[in-house]
Specification:
Elements: E1 4-7, E2 10-13, E3 16-17, H1 18-25, E4 29-33, H2 34-47, E5 53-58, H3 65-73, E6 77-80, H4 83-91, E7 99-101, H5 108-117, E8 121-124, H6 127-140, E9 144-151, E10 173-174, H7 178-185, E11 191-197, H8 207-226, E12 233-235, H9 252-263, E13 269-272, H10 276-279, E14 283-295, E15 298-303, H11 312-316, E16 322-324, E17 334-340, E18 349-357, E19 364-368, E20 389-393, E21 396-401, H12 406-414
Parallel strand pairs: 4-20, 5-6, 5-13, 6-7, 7-8, 8-9, 9-10, 9-11, 11-12, 12-13, 15-17
Antiparallel strand pairs: 1-2, 2-3, 4-14, 14-15, 14-19, 16-19, 17-18, 20-21
Helix pairs in contact: 2-9, 5-6, 8-9
């Protein structure tokens, strides 16, 4: 078994007991399954095999260098949204012609780096951004490949904070403006308009909005081709979500089946940008129970992980399943409880009014499906060091980012 499974009641990652990892590195700690990351990537790659394609991993989901290097070695491309992610991807082994640079607010320095690197595409968010890319490319004496991000005004049917494809969202330009922008860009000698892109949101479980976006992109691609524009990429974005309790998962195969009919036959490479769907299930946050207390009729399970370690429940109301690491007590008592952290905020919770196995002080618990937007959104709030990241591969584990300590938090103040 790869990923997270039980062996004689013990929760393991690729066969390695999480309790053994916790004894070695302490808690809280992020633990990742290398094998599950590889399997998830290969499923996306195989699902889109009927067309020329490139699976560009969305680095914002988790940009640890070991994880990036693993995906680069598997033949993935990268979708980056900052200069830092661009540098991390290049240093992790992604070739520049397999990287696309997205992001609604690129700085002058980021545009400079993107042009210098010779990326597969800079996903421009506006006509003005294309002008900035033209100016920088002219300064460098280069020609930059640019794709235009369009907004098809499609409801992703996910949380409003992670919906990006409606007309009132800040991302891209209205899709009907694209032909005029392409015509104007013909006058820029240092820009080649080589593609179009759309990304309508995240945590999507319904394939229909994704199919609708692909349909609209394909229609635009044909219209642009009829005007003589030579496109080499059509980027359908990402956003495939993870199923929660009672929800039906959107598999790579179902996703591809919804998208491929609309893009098949187009003479360009189809780019897809999954992030969460590749790394989310491959991560768990292991935490220790500090206290189990009852107050005003409510039971609170207090853990040593907090919202600074995992922000998604507080930010989005995201629900992550939580389970005991070791099942060693019989009979198991089910209780209704809030699982909370030590941060001085009422929003510092992981589950509310949920049925769980009653833990004891000192027990270990695993918060599941946190490989994406877990560590990458962590902070030092309450002056807490961020947890370590642990990589499990081929029956052994190693720390790929150590735990932060006080000296790490004050280093920038004292240098």
């Amino acid at each position: 078994m790869i990923g997270f499974s039980r062996d004689n009641g013990e929760l393991t990652c690729d066969g390695v007991p999480l309790s053994a990892i916790a004894r070695k590195v302490g808690t809280p700690a992020y633990v990742y399954s290398a094998a599950l990351i590889e399997e998830s990537f290969r499923r996306f790659d195989a699902a889109f095999a009927p067309v020329a394609h490139l699976v560009c991993y969305a680095a914002k989901a988790n940009s640890n260098g070991t994880l990036l290097a693993k995906l680069a070695g598997l033949g993935a491309g990268a979708d980056v949204v900052s200069g830092g992610e661009l540098r991390a991807s290049l240093e992790s082994g992604f070739s520049s012609d397999r990287i696309v640079f997205s992001g609604v607010g690129k700085t002058v320095a980021e545009i400079r780096s993107a042009v210098e690197s010779g990326l597969l595409a800079i996903n421009a968010e506006s006509e003005r951004e294309i002008e900035k890319i033209e100016a920088e490319a002219a300064r460098q004496g280069k020609t930059a490949r640019v794709a235009l991000r369009v907004n098809p005004d499609i409801d992703a049917r996910s949380h409003p904070y992670i919906s990006t494809g409606r007309k009132h969202n800040k991302f891209g330009v209205a899709i009907d403006l694209a032909p005029a922008i392409f015509r104007k860009a013909r006058g820029f000698p240092h820009v080649r308009m080589t593609g179009i892109q759309a990304h309508i949101g995240s945590q999507i479980l319904d394939p229909q909005p994704l199919a609708d976006a692909a349909r609209d992109l394909a229609r635009l691609a044909r219209d642009l081709a009829a005007e003589g524009h030579e496109l080499s990429t059509l980027d359908v974005g990402g956003g495939i979500g993870l199923a929660g309790p009672g929800e039906k998962p959107l598999t790579p195969e179902t996703y591809a089946a919804a998208v491929l009919p609309h893009v098949a036959g187009l003479p360009m490479t189809v780019l897809v940008e999954p992030g969460r769907a590749i790394v989310g299930p491959a991560g768990a946050l292991v935490t220790e129970v500090l206290d189990v207390k009852k107050s005003s009729g409510k039971l609170f399970v207090v853990t040593d992980a907090g919202m600074n370690d995992l922000l998604r429940p507080a930010l989005y109301g995201a629900i992550h399943s939580i389970e005991s690491v070791t099942e060693n007590r019989m009979p198991v008592e089910r209780v209704m409880a809030d699982v909370v952290g030590p941060i001085c905020e009422s929003s510092d919770f992981f589950l509310r009014d949920s049925s769980i196995d009653r833990p004891l002080e000192g027990d270990l618990m695993a918060i599941r499906d946190v490989g994406a937007y877990g560590f990458s959104m962590s902070s030092n709030y309450n002056f807490r060091g961020r947890p370590p990241e642990v990589w499990v591969e081929k029956g052994s584990f190693r720390v790929i980012r150590r735990r932060e300590h006080f000296d790490d938090l004050v280093r920038a103040e004292r240098e």
